[in-house]
Design brief:
mainly alpha, about 100 residues
Length: about 100
């Protein structure tokens, strides 16, 4: 499937979901209470809030788990090449000045 076709499919799916969510959330107000009761319609507001809170808490859990299980970095025994080059460059400048 091409990117354009996939994009159109996503647009159509999103519009259908928006229409379905609107009907689910406002069924008692638009006269569709014979199919969807007020109790079920309340879940249209509760469910997304619960999902958003759980998604945030799972993200926090993942960060904590990663911090708890990642070993600390090993200390460097030798200075990095860049630091050696900088140090030797500083020494060469001092030698030239004197």
């Amino acid at each position: 499937m091409s990117d354009k076709g996939l994009g159109i499919l996503i647009i159509v799916f999103s519009i259908l979901l928006m229409i379905g969510y609107f009907i689910w959330a406002f069924a008692p107000l638009i006269g569709l209470s014979q199919w969807i009761t007020k109790d079920i319609s309340e879940w249209a507001f509760k469910l997304p809030v619960v999902i958003a809170i759980y998604a945030f808490l799972i993200l926090i859990l993942w960060v904590g788990y990663t911090m708890a299980t990642t070993p600390p970095p090993l200390p460097l025994e030798k200075p990095l090449e860049i630091e050696r080059e900088k140090a030797s460059g500083i020494n060469e400048k001092k030698d030239k000045e004197t």
